[in-house]
Design goal:
Elements lengths: L15 H8 L4 H12 L25 H20 L10 H12 L8 H8 L17 H5 L3 E4 L3 H13 L3 E4 L8 H4 L31 H14 L6 E2 L2 E9 L4 E8 L4 E6 L1 E4 L22 E3 L13 E5 L3 H13 L2 E5 L6 E3 L9 H9 L3 H10 L25 H18 L3 H7 L11 E3 L2 H6 L4 E4 L3 E4 L3 E4 L4 E3 L2 E4 L13 E3 L6 H5 L17 E3 L13 H22 L3 E4 L1 H16 L27 H7 L8 E4 L1
Parallel strand pairs: 1-2, 1-7, 2-3, 4-18, 7-19, 8-17, 9-10, 9-17, 10-13, 11-12
Antiparallel strand pairs: 4-5, 5-6, 14-15, 15-16, 20-21
Helix pairs in contact: 1-3, 2-3, 2-12, 7-17
Bound molecules: NADP nicotinamide-adenine-dinucleotide phosphate.
């Protein structure tokens, strides 16, 4: 794997034909940006050939064939000169030119407030701007006496370890599994893959130009995270097969006493100055509450606890649930099962994405590795259409006349597009169409990515979609509410996770004996999703209201949160403080604003259940904020937001 923040990692040595062949696969808007870097000539930005408005999962800027061919021809000449001249680049474009390039590339004005955030994400200067840049050798003595316990070694736990290592702060990662990877280790069901574009869904400081697919499979994501853990020495600091059972704040010396239990049952208490939870939101599998579940005699397991030893060839499989996991799993199981029955409680909206299962061509990989700044601009092109542009369309219009089916005019337009997409696939089967088109507004639940494989699977002769609801499960069958019996050999629960029980089942006890699980119940709240009153020096990654359902990638969000947390640790150490605790009024004011904002968003619409909502229908998991606001708020902690203990 080539991961390099350098603009053009590899020099070009290929002959003209090989370059031309690779350019056939290039993203043309991205190629045009590379051409500006190659020549220093900005006339391209004022020419007639230009990308149209960028849309998600479309990396050719909607440009017609002839325009793309013209750009390729021009690029070939420029690249020949670059190669023959020894791969030397002119001075980099000015910040103003970079801003112009951004707007040119996505066919719309990129507002100035987004430029610094995007610059950081792109790292055109080769610098990892989200590192706290805290000299390892400063405060060595204070750091020596400071210890951080990180809970979890998934994507955000590895990131935390990397940042702590860079800052020279001693830490221990506690991981319940045998290895790193978290969600990408546990979710090993057939068909599991990422559904955020992979060249963006990776750490900003650790790009990967070798993703095999635009939305790669679980094993490739796991391999990437394993590579990062190894490269940055995370494993050496990790205690595997060990779970955090409890953490108690000791007011005497402002430390956390973290009780851990290894798989052999041995318990031990670790002392920490700070605890960083990196346990994710979707980590504890949830089984359906169906009578008779425990009486089923065959293999029965959750998607996140896949039992690969069972051969599904020719057997009768029942899958309960039709969320993101089922959408990926069902097409794969349908290929081998003798009979597959899918039990749907609610239909899901899906976004057409023809690239969802597509491979990245060798030509594209070559461009990512060889064309100066190409990979960085490609990241921007993936990020921009999936940033804040969509957010206004997810706000409920109180005067909208069809409040059950959509929330505003734009949302209704999306409903038409997504419905037509399904209609075109279903063909002449009104019964199936009625089952698969959701009654609630698009974006109400998590949108799923689709390339047609879901409905193709449901249309197969060996597959049946049951919407009657489940009455009970017996030793060898699932019984629907209409009394139909579905004989079943293997039962799969694609029923999601206990998303609202944050940090559960750990017992976290803060100042004054306050128990976090009792304080939160299923109504968790935090300041910025990160810190909680009465729980000094406890920091959450992917905490309450930080899930992204309108944009971005959770890696971007974790990088923002971690920069903030590292800023907190820096303030503690530099100020010689023992503890910091968010002020209640600051926390409450933030949460009032959060509630008011969320109440207007599509996710709060009463027409559907989802893991975004708690038992009372309040959205607890998901962020309503513009990415650019959250990015700004998490740049560094405001000391005035906290009470400090010496
Ligand atoms: P989920 O979205 O919570 O879906 C659970 C499904 O199970 C829903 O269809 C739900 O129906 C159904 N269900 C639950 N209890 C049931 C019952 N008693 N009877 C019948 N059906 C029942 O869970 P998920 O699919 O595992 O996905 C969770 C999240 O994980 C996703 O939204 C996504 O954020 C993440 N994920 C991501 C990827 C990816 O990016 N590649 C893949 C998988 C998961 P209702 O809708 O009616 O509640």
């Amino acid at each position: 794997m080539t991961r390099d923040l350098q603009p053009a990692a590899l020099p070009i040595r290929e002959d003209d034909d090989a370059i031309a062949k690779a350019l056939e696969r290039a993203s043309i808007p991205t190629l045009m940006m590379s051409m500006v870097h190659l020549t220093g000539d900005t006339r391209l930005l004022r020419g007639a050939i230009r990308p149209r408005k960028a849309i998600m999962s479309e990396v050719q800027g909607g440009m017609p064939k002839e325009e793309k061919a013209a750009v390729r021809a021009q690029a070939l000449e420029i690249l020949k000169d670059y190669r023959d001249g020894g791969c030397r680049l002119p001075p980099p474009p000015s910040p103003d030119t970079i801003h112009q390039m951004m707007s040119f590339m996505v066919g719309e004005e990129v507002p100035a407030e987004y430029v610094p955030m995007m610059m950081e994400e792109m790292a055109l200067d080769g610098k990892d701007a989200r590192d706290v840049h805290w000299d390892r050798d400063r405060l060595t003595e204070a750091k020596r006496d400071f210890h951080v316990v990180v809970i979890g070694s998934g994507m955000s736990g590895i990131l935390t370890a990397i940042r702590l290592e860079q800052a020279g702060i001693p830490y221990t990662v506690i991981e319940k599994n045998d290895s790193v990877g978290g969600t990408w280790l546990e979710n090993a069901y057939p068909g599991c893959r990422v559904d955020i574009a992979n060249h963006f869904y990776c750490y900003s400081f650790e790009p990967n130009h070798d993703w095999p697919q635009f939305f790669s499979q679980q094993k490739d994501l796991l391999q990437y995270l394993e590579h990062c853990a190894t490269k940055y020495g995370v494993r050496e600091h990790t205690r595997f097969r060990t779970e955090v059972v409890a953490a108690h704040f000791d007011e005497g010396d402002s430390s956390w006493q973290v009780r851990v239990r290894s798989r052999d049952g041995r318990e031990e208490t670790l002392r920490a100055n700070a605890v960083i939870s990196a346990v994710g939101q979707l980590n504890r599998p949830k089984l359906p509450d169906v009578p008779g579940l425990e009486t089923f005699r065959g293999p029965a397991f959750h998607t996140a606890q896949w039992e690969s030893e069972h051969d599904l060839e020719g057997v009768r499989v029942a899958v309960i649930g039709t969320g993101a996991s089922a959408l990926q799993l069902v097409p794969e199981v349908a290929k081998v099962a003798g009979r597959l029955v899918v039990f749907q409680r609610s239909a899901a909206w899906m976004v057409p994405n023809p690239n969802y299962h597509a491979n990245v061509s060798d030509g594209k990989k070559w461009c990512l590795k060889h064309l100066p700044y190409y990979a960085r601009w490609y990241r921007f092109l993936l990020f921009w259409p999936g940033s804040d542009g969509l957010l206004p369309s997810l706000v409920i219009d109180p005067d909208w006349p069809h409040p059950d089916r959509s929330i505003n005019e734009l949302n209704e337009g999306m409903r038409q597009i997504f419905t037509n997409y399904m209609k075109a696939q279903v063909g002449n089967d009104p019964e199936l169409l009625a089952k698969v088109v959701p009654p609630y507004p698009p974006f109400g639940k998590r949108m799923l990515q689709d390339n047609g494989s879901w409905l193709a699977a449901l249309k197969r002769d060996n597959v049946e979609l049951v919407t009657e609801g489940i009455a009970e499960i017996t030793a060898d069958a699932v019984i629907a509410r209409d009394g139909t019996r579905y004989p079943t050999d293997v039962l799969v629960f694609a029923t999601g996770f206990h998303a609202n029980k944050f940090l559960w089942p750990m017992e976290i006890v803060g100042r004054g004996g306050v128990v976090l699980g009792e304080r939160w119940a299923d109504d968790p709240r935090a300041y910025l999703g990160i810190t909680v009153p009465d729980f000094p020096n406890l920091y959450c990654l992917y905490g309450p209201a930080t899930n992204l359902a309108h944009a971005g990638s959770i890696i971007f969000h974790s990088e923002c949160q971690l920069r903030y947390i590292m800023g907190c640790l820096k303030a503690l150490l530099e100020g010689g403080f023992a503890a910091m605790e968010v002020r209640r009024d600051v926390h409450d004011a933030f949460n009032e604003k959060l509630d008011a904002t969320l109440a207007r968003m599509v996710w709060s619409h009463p027409g559907m259940t989802s893991w975004y909502k708690n038992s009372k229908g309040r959205v607890t998991t998901t962020s309503p904020w513009r990415l650019v606001d959250y990015w700004r708020w998490t740049m560094e902690p405001d000391p005035g937001d906290y009470d400090w203990t010496h």
